[in-house]
Amino acid sequence: MTAPTSPRRMQRWLPLVAALLCVAGIYVVCVLKSGMTYLTNDDMSIQTTLSGVKAGEPYAFVPFVNVLVTAPLALLYSLASSVQWWFVYSHALVAVGLLLTHGTLLWAAGQRGRLAFVGMLVALLATDAAFVVYPITKLGFTIVPGMVGAGLVAWAVCRRNAWSWPARALGIVLFVLAVAHREESGIIVLCYVALALLASRLLSDEGGTVTEVVRGTLLPVGVLAAIALVLVMGNRLVQRQVNGNDYEAYNDARSGLLDYPHDTYDENPELYQSVGWDADLYQLVSDWCLMDERVTTDNLRYLSQNSHRQTGLATMGEQWDALMEHALAKHCLVAWAVVMVAVTLLLLLSDRPTIAWLNVASVVGTLLLWGLQLYTGRILYRTVMVSILPSVSLALGLVLRVGFAPERRRVAIACAVAALLALMPAIARSASVSFDQERIQSRLDAAQRVEQINDYAMAHPDLVYVQGSNIEGSTSPRKTYPGQRPTNILKWGGSDYNSALHFLRIRRNGLDDLTGKVFRNDRVRFVSGTSLEDADLEHGQDSLAAFYRWQRDAYGATGMVQEDEICPGAYVLRLEFNN
Questions:
Q1: What is the pTM of this model?
Q2: Residue among 182, 151, 183 at smallest CA distance from 167
């Protein structure tokens, strides 16, 4: 007969079981209700590079992901190409971060008693619905470190005893993975981990002196910062060795113009004419066509540096408006504000009211991070989420580290319930957007079109297809690559343009270059999202018309023929030349 389980053992295992059930429940709901795609084309680009779609074999050097991560994943792709390892690995990191967050916070709540445990469980379910469900259904490599960071922050702020060496090693490994996954996101995570370590030290019995606070906070933060520096600089050194200094300079110049506010051609035609660009070339470059010989490092850098609409105070309003265009941004920010206000009030009601200043510091730091992103012209929903996730985790952890006098418990509970009710609109909105079947279907339809284009191209191996940006990119991780040869579809731009991978793909497709003159090659076709029947090549303002006029004026094209329709929204075109 099995001996009864002791209450102490039940209390020890209950938080872990509850955390596992919470995370598993989130994933079950997301799998059943959503298509589980990528948030942007960035992850798709990483996946196709690592899996061998681009090069014909797994390729480890992705410019914006640390080789410490990509090299093992490329090896896994070479061993088992039928598994989408980038998708699996990314979600594994997300799951670890969620488990660490839920397990740590529920364990700390369990030490406070049954009411605190139930209250924290409800709070976590509410914050999951408000903040976590969407990034799981729309996975973004920028947000993944924020998930891991939330777990690290919860673990750091809730620990009451000294860190053992195994615990330190695990924390360092998770931090390394966060930084290696996305450098900028990992540095943001470091800021919140530092604040969490400070909070833990101040709330512990060992944090009574300045020396103890410094030893318990600055020393580990310094170690993590040094690790981050080695990771970042080491990866840049490797990438520079692979791609060369010219690519790094070109990529920085390209990003400086295309990723940040700048004068349009209509606003400042003289600026673009000074480097030999006309309206058509500006439109093509804006649509990521980088094939013209005039799209050089020097020209890109000159245009971004001399644009009147450079980043700064003048563009912050525009950046904010662009952020608010995301379907969840407003509701997500309101939900974050509700949590921060509620936690600050709870801390003020506690027996350690001065700890409220730590949450205020988190709020101020988060606002400063967003202000910096607004100022630099690079604030996006996914970059905002990187700071929201660990800041919420820190706030919940702080509440669990303080106590409440009996006469204040009812007020604290009322405050917590009011915050939960205030979160309901954000929760409802998050669910409606995450599980909107129309949005899901549109992404799946786009992925299907891309798959049809890929299958069509592979069925015509003697030709090379250059694909314009007016065909929506796939964000589906499901399609695997057969690995027979490099894909004969080349994009006319992208973040890896002019990299070692870019030139490798050109060579393996039997081409000498991928400049505008490549369309004179009899083997090259153009894949457009617009058919010739719907195009006004002479006077149209779309990408296809601009493309034709560019080819006519710069390379002597005399006409364009539509050879085939792959599927609705994907047409194979051939340019004609007199000689």
A1: 0.91
A2: 151
Quickly count helices (H) and strands (E) in the chain: 21, 7
Which of 130, 71, 515 lies closest to 337, judged by CA? Answer: 130
Q: Any alpha helices (H) in 34-143, and if so which ranges?
A: 41-51, 67-79, 85-112, 114-127, 133-137
Distance between terminal CA atoms of the chain? Answer: 91
Confidence of residue 2 (pLDDT cuts 50, 70, 90): very low
Residue found by looking up tokens 């954000």 in the block: 426
Q: What is the DSSP string of 226-265?
A: HHHHHHHHHHHHHHHHHHHHHHHHHHHHHHHHHSS----T
Name every residue whose Cβ is closer than 8 Å to that of residue 185 and which is 6 or more positions away in sequence: 142, 143, 144, 145, 146, 149, 178, 383, 386
DSSP bridge pairs for 351: none
Residues in the chain: 579
Question: CB-hemisphere CA count at 13 Å for 529?
Answer: 12
* CA–CA gap between residue 463 and residue 572 (Å, rounded): 11
Longest dimension (CA), the chain: 92
The domain segmentation of the chain, as residue ranges, is 15-235+316-435, 439-577
For residue range 504-524, what is the model confidence (pLDDT) as tens digits?
A: 999 999 999 999 999 999 999
Residue 206 has pLDDT above 60, yes or no: no
The conformational region for residue 535 under phi > 0 = left, psi -120 to 50 = alpha, else beta, is beta
Cα–Cα distance measured from residue 431 to residue 437, given in angstroms and rounded to the nearest whole number: 11
Report which of 576, 545, 572 is spatially closest to residue 558, judged by C-alpha positions: 576
Sheet arrangement for strand 464-467? 489-491, 464-467, 524-528, 570-577, 557-567
* Cα 11 from Cα 440, distance rounded (Å): 41
- Rounded-to-integer distance, Cα 423 and Cα 437, Å: 23
DSSP strand pairing (138-139 vs 37-38): parallel
Residues 6+ apart with CB under 8 A from 137: 30, 33, 34, 35, 36, 37, 434, 435
What is the H or E stretch that residue 491 is in?
strand 489-491
Taking the C-alpha atoms of residue 167 and residue 104, their distance in angstroms, rounded to an integer, is 13
Say how many C-beta atoms besides its own lie within 10 A of residue 457's C-beta.
Answer: 21
C-alpha closest to that of 463 among 502, 500, 427, 490: 490
Nearest CA-CA partner of 427 in 22, 19, 133? 133
Alpha-carbon distance of 210 to 173, in angstroms, equals 28
